[in-house]
Automatic annotation (TrEMBL), chain B:
Gene3D superfamilies per record: ACP-like
Domain of life: Bacteria
Cited Pfam families: PP-binding
Organism, scientific name: Actinocrinis puniceicyclus
Protein's name according to its UniProt entry: Carrier domain-containing protein
Length: 409, 93
């Protein structure tokens, strides 16, 4: 019996390049950066003063159930609800119908609200703590608000797997539909942690780029890369059993054809090239493909010295015996590093690349690292035949995830 | 004596109107239909227990007052909140 196909029929996204998949694509195609000076707080005491911020003015506060409560939620909830609303509208799906569910990936949840809540408590007193504080910050609240707002009575799942959270959620949704347990899933990831404690913590880890020029940072794969730039985003998709989508005449963006995840064999923050390669190989095999079938890799690459190198080494290992090698790109120069939303934002970019048949450039890549010369990295937007992409997202704790997305048939 | 009563009545009406105005600001809706006897929990669309507590925090800031913990349980009608605010204002004087 043929395996169920899982297709994407709706995309909702908000990221530093805009509030739609078209905004994302236009920004990527034009090589536009969504990075700028931090505006959410005074960053002068930090070594990194840049961020990929969402333009909140672009988020129309759609009326509807729980409108009041949603406005009091941490930004990751508000962004996720906005993205889910758009994805559902885009797909034409009726989410109150049985047969589906919601699964989102969130890594750090309401960190800005935790920080603000502690400050309020200490400065104004315990009794000034908002009753919405706890609901606003728990990572599952993004998923819950989507389910409550859209009257979804089936299962809701939230996955917290560091910066691979969103990709894990998409993988879970893929498996749910493939198994026949669900006909459709609303799935993706959200993260919004532009708050001082994030900068303190990442600065202590030496993870942040020190560049003060938003037009030059971050610099994935570049010889002078020096760390990541904090970004924020939500990307949510409607995934459906292909027969269900075709039966209702839905527009299909692409097929989520494979997924794999693995872990371990390195320290807390390191990326093992062999494990990353095993993960990509697993996803390629899950899709019934070989490495030579892959046209493009949407990399995790954030601009970290060791992480970027390990990921390219993993691509080398995967494609060593392949009949042809894929082009590799990273969109972090455009969007910044969006933590749990990394994978879903990458997936949105890959779906647009499949639609437009162009691989977006790796922004700010000027000086090739000598150790990367044998890898084909997109330096300019590249018109080419794009049928299958690998989407990578890796997280602290050794979490690796890879998705395969194929062109709509 | 009569003048004082009239002054008091005028002050009560103004306080009631101010409370209703702040309730409207908080729930972002027209609540001009509220009367002193309106029930806080059931007369305002979408009111919930969390929303009620948040609204009292908002009222504290609006009036520059600190409400007692648990006072929310004593507020049944709009007038209860008006009376409580007036009491605190008089104590502060």
């Amino acid at each position: 019996m043929a395996r169920r196909g899982v297709v994407v029929t709706g995309i909702g996204i908000v990221c530093p390049l805009g509030a739609s998949a078209d905004d994302l694509w236009q920004g990527l195609a034009a090589g536009r950066s969504g990075i700028g000076p931090v505006t959410r707080f005074d960053p002068s005491r930090f070594k990194s003063r840049l961020a990929g911020e969402v333009d909140e003015a672009a988020l129309s506060a759609a009326p509807g159930p729980l409108h009041f409560e949603i406005r009091r939620m941490s930004a990751f909830v508000r962004y996720a609800v906005f993205a889910a609303d758009r994805a559902i509208e885009d797909s034409g799906l009726e989410p109150a119908a049985d047969g589906g569910g919601v699964c989102l990936g969130v890594s750090m949840g309401g960190l800005p609200n935790i920080e603000a809540g502690v400050l309020t408590q200490e400065r104004r007193g315990v009794h000034k703590t908002s009753p919405f504080l706890i609901p606003s910050l728990i990572p599952s609240m993004a998923t819950s608000m989507i389910a409550l707002r859209h009257g979804i009575g089936q299962e809701q799942v939230t996955i917290t797997g560091a910066c691979a959270s969103g990709c894990q959620a998409l993988g879970h949704a893929l498996r749910e539909i493939r198994s026949g347990a669900r006909t459709w899933m609303i799935a993706g990831g959200s993260e919004a942690v532009i708050t001082p404690i994030t900068y303190s913590g990442l600065q202590a880890m030496g993870a942040l780029s020190r560049s003060e020029d938003p037009q030059r940072a971050p610099r994935p794969f570049d010889r002078d890369r020096d760390g990541l730039i904090v970004g924020e985003a939500a990307a949510v998709f409607v995934l459906e059993d292909r027969a269900h989508a075709e039966g209702r005449g839905a527009v299909i963006y692409g097929e989520l054809a494979g997924y794999a995840a693995n872990s371990g064999r390195e320290d807390i923050t390191g990326i093992s090239a062999s494990q990353a390669a095993a993960c990509m190989n697993g996803a390629i095999a899950d899709a019934g493909l070989t490495a030579g079938d892959v046209d493009c890799v949407f990399a995790q690459a954030s601009g970290m010295v060791q992480g970027d190198a390990a990921e390219l080494e993993a691509v080398r290992l995967v494609t060593a015996d392949a009949r042809r090698r894929p082009v590799v790109t990273s969109i972090k120069g455009n969007t910044g590093y969006t933590f749990g939303a990394n994978g879903p934002v990458n997936l949105a970019a890959a779906l647009m690349a499949l639609r437009h048949q162009v691989v977006p450039a790796t922004l700010h890549l000027e000086k090739t690292d000598p150790s990367f010369v044998d890898v084909d990295i997109a330096r300019e937007p590249r018109p080419t035949e794009v049928n299958r992409c690998v989407v990578n997202a890796f997280g602290f704790g050794g979490i690796k995830t890879s998705l395969i997305v194929s062109r709509a048939k | 004596m009569q003048d004082r009563q009239e002054e008091r009545g005028q002050a009560d009406r103004e306080l009631f109107e101010r409370v209703v105005r702040h309730v409207g600001e908080f729930v972002e809706a027209d609540v001009s239909y509220l009367t002193p006897d309106s029930h806080l929990a059931s007369s305002i669309e979408g009111m919930s227990s969390l929303k009620m507590i948040e609204m009292l925090l908002y009222m504290e800031d609006c009036f520059g007052l600190d409400f007692d913990e648990g006072v929310v349980d004593k507020f049944e009608k709009v007038q209860d909140m008006v009376d409580y605010i007036r009491e605190l204002q008089e104590i502060r004087k």
